[in-house]
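Input for the complex:
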Amino acid sequence: MAKGVKPRVKVPKSASAGEAITIKTLISHKMESGQRKDDDGNVIPRSIINRFTCDFNGENVIDVTLEPAISTNPYFQFDATVPEAGDFKFTWYDDDGSVYEETKSIAVG
Amino acid sequence: ASGLGAIPAFAATAEDMIAEFTGGAAVGEGELSLTAPEIAENGNTVPIEVSAPGAVAVAIYADGNPTPAVATVKFGKLNPSNTVSTRIRLAGTQNVVAVAQMEDGSFQQASAAVKVTIGGCGG
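Predicted:
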């Protein structure tokens, strides 16, 4: 189990209906690539976030497959259309089977 | 960094992986754009931005990394711009390549050369 994994998400609190907003996400994770070796020359096993998704009220915004070439503390910035008030749901999938979730509500008005 | 020369013979090249992604279809140019710094001092965290209007998915590759795949991004219905920014690792100076699958099934490609001062794969 990766330690100290903490998702952070920036979503505006409100938008007008149909507006495109910008979302920033970051999750603290070491993203061990599986390429590095420890001091004794043994390969350190791969341990990364392998998938990230963002949905709004059940409709997909973005779905990313991550490889070891994504940097430590994976960061994504992207846009989303807000058709109505509701919840953005963010999900990160870890190699070790852990799933990290974060939800942000947005108001329309 | 030591050990970067030890690329296994069975490792797929970026070219192979792109061919797999496109199914061998012709790849053209279009509105797809890939923004990356010309010179990256630290290969551990290189900011890139991909903008792919009209695409359903974009695959990103780094042709000089031990494993070239970087990420595959699928854009959902609620994505207005099909633009995504992230940070990637580059083992050394190389090309970063983005291949987009468009709504009509065609493919587009864009690439950017990045000079890396310190490689980002440990070693």
